[in-house]
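This week, study the protein below.
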Amino acid sequence: MREENTGMKTAVSPSVPDALRFIKEHHASRPEKTTLLLLGECMVDYQGRARSLLDWGERLILIKQDGSVLVHQPVLREPVNWQPAGSTTEFNTAHDQLILKCRHTKPPEKMKVTFRQLKLVAATALVDRASLVIAGMESDVVNDIVKDPSLIEDGLRIVKREKPVRTGSIDLYGYDKDHVPVVIEVKRSLATISAVHQLRMYVTDIKKDRKEPKVRGILCAPRIPDMVKKLLEEHGLEWQEVERRVVLPDDHQRTLQEFLTTKAQARP
């Protein structure tokens, strides 16, 4: 085990018992104040609204201070498995393997990560009080679709925004080229399993209110993970990945008057 000047504590290639002792000493007693990183060969078993099994492979596991857990493979940007903020993680060993059991109650989900070899375990306290400035909200994506419904599909006609139903408000409601009702749920970032549940309820509401024999549901987001796509297919729903245009203000760009004033002040 080695401690850096920054307060980072690390264990390089620890045995399973040493890794568990390290986690208990430097993370488990105060998980809300430490971020834990594990690198090694693991297997991931997820159970929730869907079911997935990720066989043995070398991966990075990140447990954040808000309880969220991310499982990253050596490629791609998005985690292949995850648990949201508010999750709790327990650590133990069995059969010379380190086992992480992650649970989330609403919605009920659980994920088991089993390590049979570890290359690195690291723990540190991170401080970040900055606020993220975002341009390109869900309303911007909605506006783009209203202006050009072909972003979703040809022949689509949008007739209502923020359509109220029993369980909430539908982002966009319209009809396809065959006059079939279409419910569209828009997300500005990564689509999640909860978005599938939300879309499914909206489609059910329309079927009950209108008694339509067929109602389509489409989830729109810049990125839709394979796990979410699979769940959509299981419920007879669709998806469309739609990139959003993001324009952030340039606070450092000077106006013409500012440029002329600065130039005049610089003259001898």
Observations:
- The mean pLDDT is 87.
- The longest helix spans residues 193-210.
- The radius of gyration is 24 Å.
